[in-house]
Amino acid sequence: VSPLKVQMPALSPTMEEGNIVKWLKKEGEPVVAGDALCEIETDKAVVTMESNDDGVLAKILRQQKQLTR
Protein backbone atom coordinates (compact mmCIF):
# COMPACT_ATOMS: atom_id res chain seq x y z
CA VAL A 1 0.00 0.00 0.00
CA SER A 2 1.46 3.35 -0.96
CA PRO A 3 1.22 6.23 1.53
CA LEU A 4 -1.24 9.09 1.04
CA LYS A 5 -0.11 12.57 2.04
CA VAL A 6 -2.83 14.46 3.92
CA GLN A 7 -2.92 18.14 2.95
CA MET A 8 -4.42 20.95 5.00
CA PRO A 9 -7.66 21.90 3.25
CA ALA A 10 -8.71 25.46 2.46
CA LEU A 11 -11.42 25.95 5.05
CA SER A 12 -12.65 29.19 3.48
CA PRO A 13 -12.11 30.96 0.14
CA THR A 14 -9.77 33.49 1.78
CA MET A 15 -7.77 31.07 3.97
CA GLU A 16 -4.04 31.22 3.33
CA GLU A 17 -2.68 30.03 6.68
CA GLY A 18 -3.74 27.72 9.45
CA ASN A 19 -2.35 26.41 12.72
CA ILE A 20 -2.64 22.84 13.91
CA VAL A 21 -3.93 23.33 17.43
CA LYS A 22 -4.01 19.66 18.40
CA TRP A 23 -3.68 16.23 16.78
CA LEU A 24 -6.64 14.03 17.71
CA LYS A 25 -5.07 10.82 16.34
CA LYS A 26 -1.65 9.39 17.18
CA GLU A 27 0.92 7.79 14.89
CA GLY A 28 0.05 4.17 14.25
CA GLU A 29 -3.66 4.58 14.99
CA PRO A 30 -6.22 3.29 12.50
CA VAL A 31 -8.29 5.94 10.75
CA VAL A 32 -11.71 5.54 9.13
CA ALA A 33 -13.13 8.05 6.64
CA GLY A 34 -14.88 10.73 8.69
CA ASP A 35 -12.63 10.38 11.76
CA ALA A 36 -11.36 13.65 13.22
CA LEU A 37 -7.59 13.94 12.60
CA CYS A 38 -6.72 17.33 14.06
CA GLU A 39 -8.00 20.75 15.01
CA ILE A 40 -7.01 23.63 12.73
CA GLU A 41 -7.14 27.28 13.77
CA THR A 42 -7.73 29.85 11.04
CA ASP A 43 -8.07 33.61 11.34
CA LYS A 44 -11.80 33.12 11.99
CA ALA A 45 -12.41 29.80 13.77
CA VAL A 46 -11.08 26.46 15.04
CA VAL A 47 -12.24 23.64 12.76
CA THR A 48 -11.86 19.87 12.98
CA MET A 49 -10.22 18.28 9.94
CA GLU A 50 -11.64 14.88 9.05
CA SER A 51 -10.08 12.00 7.16
CA ASN A 52 -11.29 11.35 3.62
CA ASP A 53 -9.97 7.78 3.55
CA ASP A 54 -9.54 4.66 5.67
CA GLY A 55 -6.02 3.69 6.72
CA VAL A 56 -3.41 4.13 9.43
CA LEU A 57 -1.86 7.42 10.47
CA ALA A 58 1.71 6.29 9.82
CA LYS A 59 3.65 9.49 10.53
CA ILE A 60 2.88 13.03 11.68
CA LEU A 61 5.23 15.29 9.73
CA ARG A 62 3.89 18.62 11.00
CA GLN A 63 3.43 19.14 14.69
CA GLN A 64 1.34 21.86 16.31
CA LYS A 65 2.63 25.01 14.66
CA GLN A 66 1.82 27.46 11.92
CA LEU A 67 1.42 26.04 8.44
CA THR A 68 1.06 28.02 5.25
CA ARG A 69 -1.27 26.58 2.65
From TrEMBL:
Record domain Lipoyl-binding: where: 3-69
* Keyword vocabulary terms for this entry: Lipoyl, Transit peptide
Q: What PROSITE patterns does this protein map onto?
A: BIOTINYL_LIPOYL (PS50968), LIPOYL (PS00189)
Top-level taxonomic group = Eukaryota
Which InterPro entries does the annotation name?
Answer: 2-oxoA_DH_lipoyl-BS (IPR003016), Biotin_lipoyl (IPR000089), E2/Pdx1 (IPR045257), Single_hybrid_motif (IPR011053)
PANTHER family on file: DIHYDROLIPOAMIDE ACETYL/SUCCINYL-TRANSFERASE-RELATED, DIHYDROLIPOYLLYSINE-RESIDUE ACETYLTRANSFERASE COMPONENT OF PYRUVATE DEHYDROGENASE COMPLEX, MITOCHONDRIAL-RELATED
What's the protein here called? Lipoyl-binding domain-containing protein
Please report the organism this UniProt entry assigns to the protein.
Ilyodon furcidens
